[in-house]
Amino acid sequence: MSEAIFVLRTYALSGRRRRIICVFGAIYSICVVAIVIMLSVLLRYQSYSVFPLGLGGCNLTGGPIILAGLAFILLLLNEIALMSYTLWLGVKLYRHSASPLVGTLYRDGITYFIFLCHALFTGVSIS
Question: So where are the chain's domains?
Answer without folding.
Answer: 2-121
